[in-house]
Amino acid sequence: MTITRLLIAHHKKCDDMMLATKELAAQLDWTKVDMILRELFTELEKHLNVEEDVIFPAYEKASGIRSGPTQVMRQEHRQMRDLLQALQQALAGRESEIFIKMIDTLIGLMQQHNMKEEHVLYPSCDRLLVVETFLPVIQNRLS
User: Fold this and answer.
1) CA distance to 48, 82, 105, 126, per residue, from 3 (Å)
2) Cα separation of 44 and 47, whole Å?
3) Residue 134 to residue 7: CA distance in whole angstroms
4) Residue 119: which of 37, 36, 7, 35 has the closest Cα?
5) What are the contacts of 29-38 at 24+ separation with CB within 8 A?
6) 127 with 58: CB under 8 angstroms?
7) Number of H helices and number of E strands within the chain?
8) Residue 117: is it exposed, middle or buried by C-beta count within 10 angstroms (0-12/13-18/19+)?
9) CATH C-level class of 3-142
10) What pLDDT is stored for residue 20 in this prediction?
11) How many Cβ atoms sit within 10 Å of the Cβ of residue 81?
C-alpha cells in the first residue's frame, strides 16, 4: 500500500458521495441528500485535515518546499469548505437548481485538485516520506 493508493481510494469515496447527492437533489429526495451530504462533510473534513496536519507538513519538511504546491492545495481546501457551506444552505432552502450547480462546481474543483495531488503531490510523498511511518497515521485518521 502507498500513500497515493490510499488517498486516491478516499478521493473516490468522496467523489461517489458527491455524485449521489447530485442525483438525489435532482430527484428532490432531500432526506437522503441531507444524510449523504453529512457523511460527505465528515469524510472530506477528515481527508482535508489529514493532508493539512500530516501530509503537507511532512512533504514540506522532506522537500524543503514551503510555498509551492501545498500552499495552492490549502487555498483550494478553503474553497471546498466554502462550497460545502453553500451546499448546506441550498439544502436548507430545498433549492435544487442552486444545489446542483454548486455540487457541479465542487465536483469540478475537486477533479482538478485531485489530479494535482494524485499525479504530483502523493507520488512525491511516496518517494520522500517513510511510507510505513505515515500509512498507519493516515489510515487511522481516515477511519
Assistant:
1) 14, 27, 27, 6
2) 5
3) 12
4) 7
5) 30/91, 30/94, 33/91, 33/99, 34/91, 37/87, 37/88, 37/91
6) no
7) 7, 0
8) buried
9) mainly alpha
10) 97
11) 14
Chain segment 23-69, per-residue pLDDT in tens: 999 999 999 999 999 999 999 999 999 999 999 999 999 999 888 88
How many residues are given for the chain? 143
Euclidean distance between CA atoms 3 and 124, whole angstroms:
10
Q: What residues have CB less than 8 Å from 14, skipping those under 6 apart?
A: 40, 43, 44, 47, 110
Report the b/e string of 25-42 with b at 16+ CB within 10 A: beeeebeebeebbeebbe
List the chain domain ranges: 3-142
AA identity, residue 107 = I
Q: Residue 114 in contact with residue 11, Cβ under 8 Å?
A: yes
Single out the residue of 19, 14, 23, 31 nearest to residue 94, CA to CA.
31
65 to 32, 58, 141: CA distances (angstroms): 42, 10, 25
pTM, entire model: 0.93
